[in-house]
Each structure stands twice: as structure tokens, then as C-alpha cells.
Amino acid sequence: MSAIADSYQDLTRRNRMGMWLFFLSEAFLFGGLLVARFFLWGNTRPSMEPTMIGPLAVSYQIIPLLITVVLLLSSFSMNRAETAIAHDDRPTFLRFTLLTALLGTLFLLGVLVFEWGWRMEEGNFVLGRHISPTDGVYGAVIYGMTGMHALHVLSGVIMLLLLWNLGRKGHFSAREHWGVEATAIYWHYVDLVWVFFYPAIYLIGVGVHAAAH
Amino acid sequence: MRILRLGLVQGLFGGLVGWVMGFSLVVAMRLLLGLPAAWKTGVSGPAAYEPAMVVAAIFFAIGFMVGVGSMTDWLKWAVGIKTPFHHGARIPGSPEWTRYFSVDYSHKVIGVQYGVTGILVLGVGGTLAMLFRLQLAQPEMKFIAADVFNTMISAHGMIMIGSILLGVGAMSNYLVPLMIGANDMAFPRLNAFAYWINVPGALLLMIAMFIGGWNTGWTGYPPLSAQAPVGVQYFFLGVFFIGLSSILGSVNIIVTTLTMRSPGMSLFRMPIFVWAAFATAIIQLTATQLIGLSFLMVLTQRILGMGFFDPGGVVWYEVDKWVGGGNPILFQHLFWFYSHPAVYVFILPGLGIISELLPVFARKPLFGYKWVAMSSMAIALVGFLVWAHHMFVSGMSNFLRAPFMMSTLLVAVPTGVKFFSWLGTLWGGRIEYKTPMLFSLGAISVFLIGGLTGPPLGTVTTDMNLHDTYYVVGHFHATMFGGFVFPFFAALYYWYPKATGRMYNEALGKLHFWLMTPAFWVMSLGQIFVGMHGMRRRIATYEVGLDIGTAQMMVTIAGFVIFLSVLVMVLNLFVLSWRARHAGANPWRSRGLEWQIPSPMPEMSYASLPVVVGEPYDYGKPGSTYVQFAAPTLAHAPLAGGD
Amino acid sequence: MENIALATIILPMLLGSMILAGLWALTWLMPGEPKSGKGAELVAAPAYGPDYVRLSTKRHTAYRTGLMVLLGLAVLTIVEFILAPLNSAALMFVIMILKAAVIMSYFMHMATVWRNEEAH
What is the pTM of this model? Predict the structure, then answer.
């Protein structure tokens, strides 16, 4: 079979093409969510109450901005990890892979805890600090978009941890590191999606308040 | 026990375990969160029961895939265990037939798996059609209750679509590597995964009929699907998994076509079917996500209360809480963005088969090869811009109607190119009327009916009257039979000797054709006739006063004849095959790569490297060569200038 | 409007300092050369001689590119946030596409899809 005779370069070329086709496919999924957002919200967006962190009232736009920054930094550290293994710098690769996973987890926590607002109330889990999934079309689209994205971040974090484990055991080299490249471009792709989702949810449109002012 | 070690059996066991785990997980979580675990009845079915059923179905699919063994290699890779690639039975020493019931990486085995599953599922969908056609044979017959009738027509629609996708997968997976001179697909493991995920998908579709069914039609439009019984969730998930198979399979087809062609096979020297499969894969890769998304949105609306499609009155927001604002039209846009290009997924491979077979049996070059190749791509690309012609009466913005009408009529241009090419190929040829050729010609005649009834549906003014009548049913069945069923049967007869090494019974094959084709003309024209006389789609019975009883009876009888003729084919190909005569390597005197190697094909199709040196369809031109074989080598060294 | 004031002054400053702090933390984490530690013994690259200098320089150039891209993306994000009150969806989309192009070309190495051989 030709699969055995093919060189690592041939296989990597095919894998890379397959990965990008998968991204193209996923782009239609995320594009569909963006279409849903603009179809249903038009030129509006939900404007939410400030989050109370202790006695401080913090604008709800801060938390999304912070988690955006976290994701951006994670993208950078992923790039650093990939560059490191491409230049045979394994310790840096391991360190930054782990850091990327950490930043990814931080992003997930930001979404789950601050954006979605899972919290304990009288011994029960309650969802929805600003807005809950049942809050009409605003809640539905916000939870749909952030949920689908968070699912991809979660899978990316799992991939990163597996990658770190393999790297620790001595897999991958400057010549043969398709596993690292695949994880890296997947992670950047997840960041790329957030580049579109963040403004679509939080910046574009006229803020509409839930409570009558 | 050998049976217990089959992948299929282990997969079903894993699926069952997964189902139970998923169901108990939801119940346990509800108990932990302090929610009532009692089956509280909500608006759309029991509130706790439905999420549990949905999670159980997802776990069922995962459990099946783990159990069947299609994820074993990937799970091992994830922890750093290398798994050597191997062809042959999973458990060494087991007989050849076990390969077809377990995970196998050979594209030939996977192609056969796709094909046989497709025919089985076709049988299920056909049986449903026979049942409800009995009710429609006469006016005012009510032996099937109305909601069961609705579940049956919905199931017929989606199960048939599943079967067509399986058939398309069979043709692409089996033929594309053979035709381009590759020994396997680019990602054999992904290929196996993409096949096996169909099995839980198809099972979920069938289970859906027995857990309440879904009375929404195959389109599953909200708000009806947001209120339908719990069966609609299994329908969504079944389609979701079959769609996943489409996406992963198309990645494989595209990469294989682009990177694994034989030396000398430039894009415009590929067999025309490969072009069709490539164009199909582009649609499947991208558009399929949208039907998955639209179904997922209804699914979450039902179990999580996310109101994408819930208008909720006219108030967009009230004090302290946003409510409503959803829009069911969004669903139709997302749904048809897949489901219209999907019909090109169904027909493009079939049209490719017709173009592939006509030159062989007419002994003439394919007329306008490049135009035919490009027309497949053009249909695929224009197909993305026509979806809203399904929504002329849905209440979408009026200004969208004219542009979508024009883009829809534009599809007729590349389709016309294909018809011209077929006529040009047949013109003056020395035609051999073998069964595959008969089915190709039958396909052209049937597809012509489907094609000519299309423009009245794409034109806004006439669609206003014809929308949701049996005319649409007639048009759709004509395109599906002409574009998929007839060419698929032609392909089965044509490549059967190559796959098995034995020749089917020609007389029975011709009987199949002469039963099926006239019956289909009657059925299709009858459906169009009753539609124009006021028969609506998706109604369980109709009035005597419509005066269409005779035509309906004819349609039903024709349907039964078609069903019978397919049984003749099954008898011919699957039962009588064991004592059929040997066919030889190239019974059709074809120039294709796959016909130059022995039948049945060895495990590694191309032990020696094929080198393409000429044009694929130069039949009847003396001295022209398409392919030469290099000296046998163990490992293929890349030739200079290749690919 | 207090929102505008918040958006134009306080948040960019907060954001900028966060990014700077993050960068500082990252550069501190970034080792100049392989140190001893888990996995260090597996490093196959030359540790001395002209080859080491060449590799080490190449590596640092690559690292610096990543840093520059990060800075560019951070600036674009700040600009996006500041300009959001203009309420121009078109402008937002231009910035989004710009960011996407940067990520695809530098972080995801899109050009390698069409390249036959490995460059490194």
C-alpha cells in the first residue's frame, strides 16, 4: 500500500490539507452562528447590568475583554511552543504548551464563571449572572455562540495536555512534529473564531437593556 | 464465539452501555443538583425525560464508536502508543467475511460496507413508502392513523436521504482511489470512522419512529418540531451523525484526489467520476455544518429553552428579562443552505457515473470532457446560491425572491451542458445495450423529467401555485431516481464483475431495467398529474371529489413494481452470485485504471505503479493509450514530474 | 456618557497594562537556551559551535516574530474596543478580518498548505 511507502513529509502534507479542510468546514458552523446573531439581533446587542465584584460595580464589558486578552496571550504562547519544537528547544516547548493549557483553562473559567455565572445559591447551582439561556433570543444566541466556542476551547485544552504529556516522554522533534503543529493551528483557529465572536457579541450594535430605564 | 468478536456486535454492546450511562448520568446530575428526578410533564413532553434521552443518544453513538473499535488507534496515539498500519482482518486468522462486520481500513471493504448498508436502508425506506402508498391508492382510506402516517412519510424522507448518502459514500470510497491509481484513501482510519458513525446515525433514525415518532416532515421546521414528540430529537441526532460522516468522508475524498493521483494524471486527465466526487465533496464538506447547526438549535430550544425560533409574542424585552424575538425563518435559511446543495450531493456522483459509462458502451470519446468536468464544479458552486427558492411562500423578505429565482434557473445551464455531452457522446456511437448502459440511458430519460419539471418550481409565479403539492413530490423523485438511483444501479452492475470477479445474470438485469423504468415513468408522471389536480403533500388521505383516484392507484401499482424490480436486483447480485460465471479482468473493454488489474482485485490494488500517458476517454481512436504500468516495486519511488 | 469615558480612557489603560504584564511574564518564562530540567536531555540540537549560533539566532528571530504578531494583534484589539462606540459594524468587520489574516498567515502558517516540502 502506498501509505507505508509514503514519507513523513508526504503524510504531513496530506494531514495539513485535511486539517485546513476541517477548518473550512468548521468555518461554516461558526459562520452559521454569526448569521444567526445578525439575523436575530440585527443592529442591537444586549446591554447588561454591571457585575458586582465585592463592592465594586464593574461594567459587564470588562470581563469579555479580559478573557479576550487571555486567549490572545494563549495564542502567542502556543506559537512560542511550536516555534520552540521546530528549533529543537524542548524545555521551552514543554513550558509554553503547559502555559497555553493554563491560559485556555483560565479562558474557560472566565466564560463559565463570569460570563455564564454558574454559582451556588442555597445549595443549588444557578446559571445566569447577567442573562440566562432562556432570556429570549439574546440569551439563546449568547449561550449558543459562547457555548460552541467553549466546547472547542475545552477540546483544545485536552489536546494540549495530551501534547504536553507526549512531549515530556520525548516524542516530536524539529523534523517530525506534525502533532504539535496540528494542535497549534487548531488552537489558533479557536482564537480566530473568538476574533469574530467577541465583537459580534459585545461590541457591534446598540445596547438594549433588559430592565426599563 | 466468533460472532461476539465482530466489531458490529461489540459496537452495539458498547452503544447499549453508553445509552444506559448517558441516561443515568442525567438522572444522577438532576438528583445531585436537587432537581426533581420525577418525570415532570412540560409543554413538549416530559421535562426530565427528554434531556436524559438526548444525552443517552449521544453516549450511544460514542459508545458504539468505541465499542466497534474505530477509535482504538487514535486513543492509543493520544497516549503515545504507535500502531502500525495494516490491511487484513482485525483479528489475525479470522475468515474474510468478518472484515465486513468489523472496522477495516481497506477502502474496498469500506466501500462495500457503505453500499450494502445503503441498500439495506433503501429497503427500509422503500417498505415505508409501500405502506403509505397503500393508503393513498384510494381516496378516504384511513387504515393508517394520521400521525403515524406523518411519522412514516417523514421517516421515508430522511431514511432515503441517509441511504442516498450511504450510496454516494459507497461510490466515492470504492471508486476514487481505484480510478486515480492509489492503493487507499489518504486517511484510512478516518474513512473507517466516517463509515461506522453512519450505523448509530441510521439506528437513531429508526429508533425515532418507535419513541413517539416525529410528525414534522423530513424538514423538521420549527415551531412544529419544537413541539413534536421526543422522536424528533432522535431524528435530529441521527441526521447529525450521518452529517458528521459526510464531512469527514469529504475531507478524505478531497485530500485523496489532490495528493494521491498517479504520475501523469493531471486534473484534466482524471476520470470524469472523480471530478463529480470532488465537486460533491466540496458541498458535503461545507454545507453539511449548517443542517447540523439548525437541528442543534432546535434541539437546544427543546431541552434548554434557548429561544432561537420562538417569537414569543411581539414584546422583545420586558422589565428585568428578555423574552422572545426568535424567528422560525432563520431555521429555514440555515436548513436549506444545506438541504438544497444536498440534492447536488445526491445527483452529481450519479451524473458522473452516466458520463463515465456512456463512452465505454458507445465506444466513442466523451463529448466535451473539460466542459463536463467544469459543469460539475459549476453546479456545486451555483448550488450554494439558490437555497431560498424553497422559501418563496415562507414569508421571507420579498426582495429576495427575484435574485433567488434567477440563480435557480442558472443551474439549468451546467446541467444542460451535461445533457449535450451525453447526446454528443451517443451520437453515431456503436452502442452495446448491456444492463449498465440501459440504466444510464434510463437515468437520462428520468432525469430529463426531473429537470424539465424544475423551472416551474424555481419560478416565483408558478411556484406560488405548485408549492407543497404532489407536483413537487413528482419532480423530486424524478431527479433523485434519475440522478442517483438509476446511475447507482448502473454502477452496481458495471463494477460488480470488478469487485467480485463474477458476472451477474444479464437476463435478470435486463428484467430489472424493463420493470423499473416504465414503472418509474408512470409513477413520476402520475405524481406530477395528481399534484396539478390539487393533491397536497403530506396529507394522510384525500377526498373523492378531487377525482384523482385512478391516477393514485396507478402511482401505487407503479411503486410496487419498482419495489419488486429492486428485489430482482438483490436476488441477482447477492443470491445468485455464488454460481455466476467468472467475468475476467475487463469485460467491458474499458480504458479505466481499475480495469487493467485482475478481478477480484488484490488487497493492494496497484502493486506496480500506473503511469498515465494519454487521455481517459479516447475510445475508438487507434493507438491511443491511457495508462502504462511501471515495473513492480515494493515501495513507490516518486517519478520525476509526477503530481 | 460614562460608557464612552470608560471605554476610551480607563479600559485601554487597563488592557494595555495587562498586556504588558503578560508580555513581561512571558519573556521572563522564555529561556534563552535549553536549561537543565525535565526533557532537557532529549534535546538533539547542537549545544556549541557555529551550528549552535546559527540555530540559536534563527530561533530567536522566530521568537521575535511571534512577539511582534502578538503586539500587532493587541493593538488591533485595543483599537477595536476604542472604536466600538462609533457603532460601525463595517469598521468592526474590517478589523476582524485584519486580525484573522494576521493569525492565519503568521500563527497558522497558511502558506505551508500549498508548499510541498518542509521549510525548516
Answer: 0.89
